[in-house]
């Protein structure tokens, strides 16, 4: 408990008219300090590995350039490039967290074709070697016009699909649906678009459900900073939407986020 006292006088050198005593619970401050310490420790750990790799390979190439074949040089430079990308992603995550925590995350709305956006992510996975049969995309038609930040929606989709592919098993199913439809082709003012990403893996333990969107949650498998889903939740909520996690019909993990439809008049 933090206790502070303040004297109130009618003039600087006058008699004390009253004494104000303030009692503050310091637990919230301690939690914030612990969270900041964890963030610093995580960042330091995540930065150390790629930076050590970059330093090691560049120093080796500079000192012994002539000793390596072109294929060896290419392999080392590709590793340096990949590690530089890891550092860039981490810095971007830190900036996102700072903006989310301070309420300064900007949403630049424009028309977004959410079905096409999901399709692009699936095509990228297939081009990288995943089987096309592993993905099932179902898009309800028609959908209301969605006004959202396309870059940030891509960030949400990328994270959820990556989690399903990396940590899940079997088919990754993505359902894009609309809510609050009046009748075919028409939507109410409170219409919304929902995207559900589910897999057929072991799912998320019930006792972990309430921690999925907190900082540093990584589930049973290590790797990554554990910040991705925290950022996803912040992005969705910055759009005025909601995100939930549960069990898929096939017992895997199921993430669903819902975004309200914002008309151009709303943006003005």
Can you put this structure into words, describing what you see?
This protein is of the alpha+beta class and 268 residues long. It has helices at 27-64, 70-102, 114-127, 150-167, 228-238, 264-267; strands spanning 2-9, 16-24, 110-112, 135-139, 146-148, 172-183, 186-198, 242-247, 253-260. The chain folds into 2 domains: 38-102, Signal transduction histidine kinase, dimerisation/phosphotransfer (DHp) domain (Helix Hairpins), CATH 1.10.287.130; 110-267, Heat Shock Protein 90 (2-Layer Sandwich). It is 44% helix and 25% strand. Residues 264-268 have low confidence and may be disordered.
How much of the sequence is in beta strands? 25-35%
Separate helix tally = 6
Query: What is the name of the CATH superfamily of the largest domain?
Result: Histidine kinase-like ATPase, C-terminal domain
Basic shape: extended
Classify the secondary structure makeup into a structural class.
alpha+beta
Number of strands: 9
Q: Can you name the CATH architecture of the largest domain? A: 2-Layer Sandwich
Major pleated sheet: 5 strands, mixed
Tally of structural domains? 2
